[in-house]
Amino acid sequence: MEIKTVGHKRYQTSYGRYLEDFELGAFYEHRPGRTLTDADNIHFSLLTMNFHPMHCDAAFAEKSEFGKLLVSSGLTLAIVLGMTVNDISAKAVANLGWKEINLTAPVFAGDTLYAESEVLEIRESKSRPTQGIVTVKTRAFNQNGVEIMNFIRSALVSKRGHGVGD
């Protein structure tokens, strides 16, 4: 987080990183964590029209190998992605894509998720001289340290002095 003075006793917080602020091989631990609730899961399932009974029918889920409702993987991905924004894409012009999204353990209401991203690649854009591409691998863990998800993501990020509001 960067804070700049914009007047007498007046400060403005800058959100995110410019291309030059990324370091190859660096790890960013995304905080705070996020505890998921049954309400989160039901709302997301209804909003996205994902009526799979493992997400919204407790009696059905009770008979499964998990014995309780699973949090929708779409919700889990959205929350983990959101946790990374401040560190990875707040200065981004665009997300360029995700690949290798892996769901490595189940997620349940009451779990608290934490995430970290490792910078895999930083390069200047060939067609946009004021921007560059950052590629990271994000891993998410529950409160017990069990990895529940990982994915690779690329974003087009502004260079310092060329972002919106600079």
Biggest sheet descriptor = 5 strands, antiparallel
Indicate the structural class. Answer: alpha+beta
Q: Name the beta content range.
A: 35-45%
CATH architectural label: Roll
| Stretches with pLDDT under 50, minimum 5 residues | none
Helix content: 10-25%
Task: State the end-to-end CA separation.
Answer: 15 Å
CATH topology: Thiol Ester Dehydrase, Chain A
Cα-based radius of gyration, to the nearest Å: 19 Å
Q: What is the mean pLDDT?
A: 94
Beta-strand segment tally: 7
Outline the structure in words.
By secondary structure, the protein is of the alpha+beta class. It has a single domain, classed as Thiol Ester Dehydrase, Chain A, CATH 3.10.129.10. It is built from 4 helices and 7 strands; from the N terminus they run βββααααββββ. The protein has helices at 38-47, 53-56, 58-62, 73-88, and strands at 2-7, 10-14, 27-35, 92-103, 112-124, 131-141, 147-158. The strands form 2 sheets. It has a 5-stranded antiparallel β-sheet, with helices on one face. Strands 1-2 form a two-stranded antiparallel sheet. A hairpin with a 5-residue loop joins β6 (131-141) and β7. The longest helix is centred in the middle third of the chain and has 16 residues, at 73-88. The model has no long low-confidence stretch (mean pLDDT 94).
